[in-house]
Amino acid sequence: MLTRDRAPRTDRALPTFITLVVLGVLLMTFHVRLEGGGVVGVMRSGTQTIMAPMQKAASFVVNPIADAVDSLGNIAGLREENRALTAALEEAEAKLIAVEDQLARLELFEDLYGLDVAGSDLGSTLANVIGRPDQFDAGLIIDRGSRHGIAVGQPVVDTSGYVVGTISSVTLVSATIVPITASREGVRVLVGTQVGRLTSQIASQEMRLEIPDAREPVLAGDRIVTSAASVSFPAGLPVGEVLEAAGVQTASISTTALPYVNLDTLRLVVVLAWPADPVSAVGQDSAPEITTTTVGETTTTSGEETTTTGGG
Are 307 and 161 in contact (CB under 8 A)? Predict the structure, then answer.
């Protein structure tokens, strides 16, 4: 009974399946013809319908990542461009400083070589400040030496004619300047009509002003110039100004002064050939003292001896 029932059912299922497959193919063919496209077009359309949501989701995830990668690339490029611009700016600044130095030199060649001190034309040598002997030494080294006419003891001013110091040592191609702020000798100066002395103070750009025979007070801002009594500088060179006003106390004045020259920013100096004739100056300084003795009508002068004898 069971065997007889199963056999007919199996025989009916196979024709039914085949019928359904054929019917499906016919319906698909009919649909394709109604759409007016080929099989490939229908498959493409179906594929696009299925893939569109997936493409949208993928773009939502991938696009920000791609944008981030592009941004990182742009940042790296901007950094390189910034470095290049910084290097170009530093080069331009260096060229500008060099041009400013050249302009300063030009002005000096036009003006300072005609410098007139104490009514006399002095020879002068322009020099660059190229350093200091060491960090503990206040001296300045310049790029001119004995080959250029520099000699020990010559006074040095800046490009404005303000006193810097004196030459302390010389080589063939360089020299060392001792600034007045580091000199132990001091500078004989004039404040108004009063003669005084400027002396250095330890580890300070300020100087001490002493006027031993003061007749009137000094005021803050009073101009200080070199005195004709100075043995290191020509008279009339500007040195600095009084910092603190001071009155006369027991016929003297003691106060502070500030030189005009800032050594930290000093780049160019002018070495003055002063005195114009050092040999003559030394001869005058070492001339023998002249004394005169009169006996009767006989006059005798030591140093240069002249004798006059009269009768009677």
Answer: no
Q: Is 93 left (phi over 0), alpha (psi -120 to 50) or beta?
A: alpha
CATH number of 120-279: 2.40.10.340
How many Cβ atoms sit within 10 Å of the Cβ of residue 123? 13
- Give dist(CA 44, CA 308) in Å, integer: 144
Judge contact between 189 and 195, C-beta under 8 A.
Answer: yes
The confidence score (pLDDT) of residue 235 equals: 93
Q: Where are the domains of the chain?
A: 120-279
Query: Locate tokens 């080069």: which residue?
Result: 91
Residue range 136-166, pLDDT digits in tens: 778 999 999 999 999 999 999 999 999 999 9
Which of these, 300, 297, 293, 294, lies nearest to 309 by C-alpha position? 297
Q: What is the dihedral of CA 110, 113, 115, 116, to 10 degrees?
A: -120
